[in-house]
Amino acid sequence: MNRKSGFTLIELLVVIAVIGILASVVMASLNSARVKARNARRSSDVKQLINAFNLGVSGSTELPNQGAIWVCVSATCYGGWSGYSANTTVDTYLAPYLPTKPSDPVGGSRGYGGYLYYYNWPGGVADDGSVWRSGHVIHWLAELPVSANVCAPGKIHSVLANTYVSCVAYIQ
């Protein structure tokens, strides 16, 4: 009896289906890792900005007073935040301590982003019921899912439209 060795069509289809399932699992894991990497980058950028502002204060300079205006302190603010521009007073204040402005990593479903400085944050009550004090803040957006450190070194201000997390960190 002469039998040819090889795969049947059914066996080949099963192998292709298994490879497809494994590939989709890997892609889901990669997307999750990308989100975590972008959020980690944002946390690092915000820490640098806070340190730069605080170094200016330790140099006997007051924080820039721009009234109640939001000021873009990243390389660019994009999407819905593109209307917030840089400010020469703030840029001059940061220049000795921050040689280049950080750039918010683009990606995810946020639709806008960057890092904003607000001189006169009014305080109030956050979504979780915690009380916010007034003062100088950096504001940015992180991507979901919400985790304990998604807004580190700041804290969650609100979770908006189940697509991103609004984060705020105090300077000083």
Task: Characterise the protein shown here.
This protein is α+β, with helices and mostly antiparallel strands and 172 residues long. The protein contains 2 helices and 7 strands; from the N terminus they run H-E-H-E-E-E-E-E-E. A 5-stranded antiparallel sheet has the order 1-2-5-7-6, with helices on one face. A two-stranded antiparallel sheet has the order 3-4. Strand 6 (155-160) and strand 7 form a beta hairpin. The longest helix is centred in the first third of the chain and has 50 residues, at 9-58. It starts with 8 loop residues before the first helix and ends with a strand. The model has no long low-confidence stretch (mean pLDDT 87).
What low-confidence regions span 5 or more consecutive residues with pLDDT below 50?
none
> Helix share of residues?
25-40%
Number of H- or I-type helical stretches: 2
In whole angstroms, how far apart are the ends?
86 Å
Query: How is the main sheet built?
Result: 5 strands, antiparallel
Percentage beta strand: 15-25%
Which shape, going by the Cα principal axes?
Answer: elongated
Structural class: alpha+beta
Order of strands side by side in the largest beta sheet? 1-2-5-7-6
Q: Element order, helices and strands?
A: HEHEEEEEE
Q: How many beta-strand elements?
A: 7
What is the mean pLDDT?
Answer: 87
Rg over alpha carbons? 23 Å
